Fold Short chain dehydrogenase.
Amino acid sequence: MQTTVLCKSIRRIAVISRKYSSPLFYSTTTSPSALKKSIVPDHTLPPNNGQQRRPSRKPFKDLFSLEERTIVVTGAGRGLGINLASAVLDAGGDVVCLDVLPKPSEEEWAGISKVGEETGRTATYHQCDITREEDVEATLTNVASQAERRNKPIRGLINCAGIQQMVDAIDYPTDGFRRILDVNVIGSFLVAKHAARIMRDAKNSGSIVFIASMSGQIANRGIHCSAYNTSKAAVQQMSRSLSVEWGRYGIRVNSLSPGYIRTAMTDRLLEEKPEIEKLWMAGALLGRLGSVEDFKAPAVYLLADGASFMTGADLRVDGGHCASA
Ligand SMILES: NC(=O)c1ccc[n+]([C@@H]2O[C@H](COP(=O)([O-])OP(=O)(O)OC[C@H]3O[C@@H](n4cnc5c(N)ncnc54)[C@H](O)[C@@H]3O)[C@@H](O)[C@H]2O)c1
């Protein structure tokens, strides 16, 4: 009698196992009725789920190409921004440079103009304060229609504009703290929002790259920059949050977090406190501070189709400064 019951049970388990032997059937302890409720049968999923935006197969070199598109770069009047703008041109794209400065840095702009003339690619410069939404919207609408006319629609943005300030937190003037958040967080958001609207309305996929900082994850040794560090942590989280909302439009959103780079921004800090260079170098695993050249390939990669499955990520490019900070 007991043997018959045991045999029946084994047969029943075998039937259930066959019935649920799909990749969704993971648990061996859950009761069959609970499993029936928890399993999503394939036919309830939307047709072609996960297949709709599958990238077409491309030659390897095209995975790093920005051809047939225009990329907007903010903070492109000097420093990291203008160098990333030049990388966009080198990678085959047209570039729209925005900055609050009336004119871009002459030497770098001369290089950009030369590449433009040699390759037939377009680079334009527009004075625009990213904290003024009307200016941002008007400028982006204008450059987007020019880009459409060139058959190189806007399909990317590098949000690089930013400001830094070294002040002891205990004495931080509220206005100063607000200004940092206004430019680094809200200004970056405004440009991302209007660029995303343009890409969504044109039904173009695209990529947004926020230039954050390792200071979004660590508090730098030797300098007191609580507002800046707070703003960069917010940029990383904003980028992650936008990736959740805009993936449905085919817009990828990632942040790139550099370590120390020699630019006007760090030159000013080093002028005020020359002794901190020694401290920074002590944490430099590659024995040097960053140069603007170090960020060209990572930024182009995030913009290009080779990163087609990358969104919501923070790419830290800091020469190991962060690991040892
Ligand atoms: N230099 C570094 O060590 C370092 C490290 C990590 C991250 N970053 C980030 O990289 C980005 C570029 O920094 P950088 O070192 O080239 O500094 P930078 O000061 O040389 O360049 C910043 C640019 O942003 C522009 N800008 C400032 N406010 C603006 C506004 N309201 N509207 C439009 N443009 C505005 C400035 O005019 C300037 O051209 C910043 O976001 C910065 O936080 C820099």
About this structure: The chain has two domains: 2-42, 67-324. Strands lie at 70-74, 94-99, 123-127, 154-159, 206-211, 251-258, 314-317. The pocket of nicotinamide-adenine-dinucleotide is lined by residues 74-75, 77-81, 99-101, 129-131, 160-164, 183, 187, 211, 213, 258, 260-261, 263-266 (CB under 6 Å).
